[in-house]
Design brief:
The protein has 331 residues and is of the alpha/beta class. Helix content is 56%, strand content 12%. The protein is built from 16 helices and nine strands. A nine-stranded mixed β-sheet has the order 1-9-8-7-6-5-2-3-4, sandwiched between helices. Strand 6, helix 5 and strand 7 form a beta-alpha-beta unit. The protein is globular, with a radius of gyration of 22 Å.
């Protein structure tokens, strides 16, 4: 059974008198910084000169400085930058200013696990990774609750790395929900696999192929969109609330029978074998090397795939249909 920590296991006062530096102010960065600030933690935000996020952070009452200056001044440095730029920024603006008094933190283990960042041996290196996008981390915190996170320790030079990481987790609200113990290796590999096999790659490929099967069979694209993409939210919400059994309880028996009898024909042993190969490429570093090389080359294949996806018929039809849905424009 996994080890799970709750509020009784954390001591938020361990951050008292310490300054926390949040590197980046995107989805996770803004949520961490504001949650910490609301809990009385002394926070700075590290951004590059000319960043469009400087005004946003300052408007929220946060102190902003360069990444190097934040690293120099802060006791805890949480890196919340995109994976592909962390290594370069660490080498230039973070690594040179670390000493044994500081703690280096991450919300994803990619750069540590795949060796793009190698911290000095005499500092604590830990992870608090919320299991939700940054806007949900912020929203749920403001509602008085928190989203679950995972915690991992890569280096425990002080002997208190776990206690300090849990204090950080408490300050962003995650101990209210529970923080699950893991490792940098496990978090990185399962996170990448989930994104590739199900959450992003698997779902979008399944939806796109189903849309094409229907439209090529002569059905209207608008009807195909509703059936294979629009209604997906209903199913995901039911699964999110109560698991697959609750979803099956909530749909018709016709749908439930189709689930049991046809689902395994679509996602069959060939798909499982492909998933196992995807996992192998994550575990042996093939994917990491490919993605790192892609960024060094200027992302030519990535940009081409992004453009092809954006121009697919399902996106064109979806954009038109969503104009009908005023409830989608509530924000």
């Amino acid at each position: 059974m996994a080890v799970v920590y709750y509020e009784k296991d954390g001591d938020p006062t361990r951050l008292a008198g310490k300054k926390v530096g949040i590197i980046g102010y995107g989805s996770q960065g803004h949520a961490h910084a504001l949650n910490l600030k609301d809990n009385g933690v002394d926070v700075m935000v590290g951004l590059y000169e000319g960043s469009g996020s400087i005004a946003k952070a300052e408007a929220e009452g946060l102190t902003v400085a360069s990444v190097a200056e934040v690293t120099k001044q802060c006791d805890v440095i949480m890196i919340l930058l995109p994976d592909q730029i962390q290594g370069a920024i660490y080498k230039e603006s973070i690594g040179p200013y670390l000493d044994k008094s500081k703690t280096l933190m991450f919300a994803h283990g990619f750069n540590i696990h795949f060796g793009e960042i190698t911290p000095p041996d005499d500092i604590d290196v830990s992870m608090i990774a919320p299991k939700a996008p940054g806007h949900r981390v912020r929203e749920v915190f403001q509602e008085g609750s928190g989203v679950p996170s995972v915690v991992a320790i890569h280096q425990d030079a002080s002997g208190d790395a776990l206690k300090n990481a849990l204090a950080y987790g408490a300050a962003i609200g995650s101990l209210r929900a529970g923080i699950v113990a893991t490792t940098f290796k496990e978090e990185t590999e399962t996170d990448l696999f989930g994104e590739q096999a199900v959450l992003c790659g698997g779902v979008t490929s399944l939806v796109r192929n189903a849309f094409e099967v229907l439209t090529e069979a002569g059905y209207q694209p608008e009807i195909a969109y509703f059936e294979v993409l629009h209604e997906l939210k209903l199913i995901v919400d039911l699964m999110y609330e109560g698991g697959m059994n609750y979803m099956r309880y909530s749909v018709s028996e016709t749908a439930e029978y189709g689930d049991y009898s046809r689902g395994p024909r679509v996602i069959d042993e060939h798909v499982r074998a492909n998933m196992e190969q995807v996992l192998k490429e994550i575990q042996d570093g093939t994917f990491a090397k490919e993605w790192i090389a892609e960024n060094h080359e200027g992302q030519p294949r990535f940009k081409a795939m992004r453009e092809a996806g954006a121009n697919h018929e399902i996106e064109q039809v979806g954009a038109q249909l969503r104009e009908m849905m005023s409830f989608l424009k509530k924000k």
